[in-house]
Design goal:
alpha+beta; Endo-n-acetylneuraminidase fold; four-stranded mixed beta sheet; three-stranded mixed beta sheet; globular; Wnt; extracellular matrix; Wnt_C; secreted; glycoprotein
Length: about 350
Amino acid sequence: MNLLPSGICFYLSVAICRLTAEVDASWWYMGTLGSQVMCDNIPGLVNKQRQLCRQHPKVMQAIGAGMKDWISECQHQFRNHRWNCNTTVREHSLFGRLLLRSSREVAFVYAISSAGVVYTLARACSQGDLDSCSCDPTKKGSSRDSKGSFDWGGCSDHVEHAMRFSQTFVDAKERKERDARALMNLHNNRAGRKAVKRFMTLECKCHGVSGSCSIRTCWLAMADFRRTGDHLRKRYNGAVQVAVNQYGTGFTAAHTHFKHPSKNDLVYFEDSPDYCIRDHESGSMGTGGRICNRTSRGMDGCEVMCCGRGYDTSRVSRTTKCECKFHWCCAVHCRDCQQQVDVHTCKGQT
C-alpha cells in the first residue's frame, strides 16, 4: 500500500472510511482494548497519532463522521470547475494520487480538511457529545463590546480547544518529517484552522422590562461552515507559489514579482495540471461526462469545461413542482409536473 506522505492521512485514508461506515458503533464502547486494537491497525499513523487515537476514540469517531461535511463543502466550492474535489473509492485515499502533488488544489484540500476537524470537534464539544470537552470555560463573568456590557452565558464554542487538538493530531506526522512538503502542509493546515476562528460571532439574548435589553447574555458561536469554505476558496484563488528558503525553515516567493505569503495565505510548490483528461499519475479524473452549461462563458461553460472536445446533448425528463397554490392559513399545495430539459455533457478523450 502506498501511504500518503501527509499528516492527515488518517482521515483521508480508506481506513477511516471503513472506521466510520462499516465498523459497528458499539466498538467505541468496548473500552481501552477495543480502541487500541482499532487504532493499531489504521495504516499511516505516527506514534503520537496512535496514542491520541487510543486515548480519545470518541473524538476520532466525531472527526470521521465530520468528513462528509468538509468534503461536501469542497465539492460545493469547485462544483463548476474542471477539478471538482472529486473523490474515489478505488485508491488508498479519498483523492487518489492528487495528494502526492504540491499543487494549489492540494493546498485547499489540506486547509479545508484541517478547518473541518476544528469545526467538527468544537461542535461536538458544545453539543455534549464528548467527555473530554464542553463549552468554553473561559467565557464567564462579564465583558463589554461596542454596545456596552454583557454577561457571559449560554454555550460558547470551545474553538481554542478544538484548534489545539487538531494541531496536535493533524500536524504530528508533518512535524516528524520536516521536509519541504511537510512545511507546505503545516502552513495550509494552520491557515485552515485560523479560518474557523476568524468567523466566530458574538450572539446575545436580551433581558429587561418590555424588551428593553437592559441586560444581555452573550456567547461566542462559530459561523456556518460555508463562510469558512468561501474564505478558503478566495485564498485558493490568491494562493502563493513558493520555494523553501535557504535555511529550510520557511518560504520565499517562487517568483520575484510574487508577494511573500502571509500566515493566512495558501501556499503551493508546483503548477496544477489542466484536469482536462484522465491521468492517473497526476490524480486528474478528466472532465469527460461532466455536465456543462452551453450558454455560459465561465468555467462551467461547455467550451471551458470540455476543453474544446465538444459535448453531447440529451433530453431528459425532470419532475418539478408547479401550479402551487396558497391555502389559508398555512399550507402551499403543488402539483408534480414533468419537464423536458436538455442536458449537455462533455465528450470523453478520443
